[in-house]
Design a protein that fits this description.
Elements lengths: L2 E7 L2 E7 L6 H9 L17 E4 L2 E4 L12 E3 L12 H8 L9 H14 L6 H7 L10 H16 L4
Parallel strand pairs: 1-5
Antiparallel strand pairs: 1-2, 3-4, 3-5
Helix pairs in contact: 2-5
The structure holds FE2/S2 (inorganic) cluster (2 copies).
């Protein structure tokens, strides 16, 4: 059953023709729209590499059908920076070495933004570890990731956007 859907991604409407209703948001982002910043790790909800925001809440795009998201606001890692001005979470990841190979990093960053929104700027280091536990890092950059998320929280509290 072919169908056409419209997805609002990073503030832009994208019309997508689908052969059937089964493609995930992850596959539509990467293979149909060309937004390859969102990564595919496990493709089964276990690694967090594919994390994006849907109406401000983090979701695993590999577990989400694209057809279910018409009318939603989808944010991917490509939608964070304003020109050369990085999002404070991106800046903090760079300054705290929150990555090595970088494959998990877009998902880590999107998950961190969701977590900092959920915790309203009051996340403890333990809450960050727990809240980021769905995002795996093969390189084991967890110490830098935790430092980056805590620092980003402080930057945002001081008004960084
Ligand atoms: Fe989606 Fe691993 S690719 S959770
Ligand atoms: Fe390599 Fe996380 S930085 S998987």
């Amino acid at each position: 059953m072919a169908l056409r859907i419209s997805l609002n991604i990073n503030g832009t409407e994208h019309g997508v023709d689908l052969e059937d209703p089964r493609p995930t948001l992850l596959d539509v982002l990467r293979e149909r729209i060309g937004l390859t910043g969102t990564k595919k790790g496990c493709d089964r909800g276990q690694c967090g590499a594919c994390t994006v925001l849907v109406d401000g809440r983090r979701v695993n795009s590999c577990l989400t059908l694209a057809v279910s998201l018409e009318g939603a606001k989808i944010t991917t890692v490509e939608g964070l920076a304003n020109g050369d001005a990085l999002h404070p979470v991106q800046t903090a990841f760079i300054e705290h070495d929150g990555f090595q190979c970088g494959y998990c990093t877009p998902g880590q960053i999107m998950s961190a933004i969701g977590l900092l929104s959920e915790t309203e700027g009051k996340a403890s280091a333990e809450a960050v570890r727990e809240g980021m536990s769905g995002n795996l890092c093969r390189c084991g950059a967890y110490a830098g990731i935790q430092d980056a998320v805590m620092d980003a929280q402080a930057r945002i509290a001081k008004g960084a956007k």
